[in-house]
Write a structure and sequence with these properties.
Blueprint lengths: L1 H25 L3 E5 L5 E5 H40 L9 H7 L2
Antiparallel strand pairs: 1-2
């Protein structure tokens, strides 16, 4: 079963790669990007799309950094609180025992 899933994953990866490769081959014509004050940039269409995708990924990751940082701090606080909580005879923290009604 694992070999089948690995083969399926490789097949899907190959399909995505060849689809993107065909997209790149079909979009080799030159395109213009117009900026402010009459400036423009000429480049192959596939390069423009790739740069736009990369910039979108960077903006998305940078947008998630504050949430990741807050969650990391919250997880550290929970671990610190659990480490300070004494354990009962069964090895379960007393705070968890109260929450689960045991």
């Amino acid at each position: 079963m694992k070999q089948f899933l690995k083969l399926l994953q490789w097949t899907l990866n190959a399909a995505v790669f060849f689809t993107l490769f065909a997209f790149a081959l079909n979009n080799q014509h030159e395109a213009k990007v117009f900026f402010f004050f009459g400036t423009q940039w000429r480049s192959p269409m596939v390069l423009i799309v790739l740069i736009a995708f990369a910039l979108g990924m960077v903006v998305g990751v940078l947008g998630m950094v504050p949430r990741w940082w807050r969650q990391k701090q919250a997880a550290k606080a929970v671990l610190a609180a659990n480490a300070a909580t004494p354990l009962n005879n069964n090895g379960v923290s007393q705070g968890m025992e109260a929450n689960h009604g045991a």
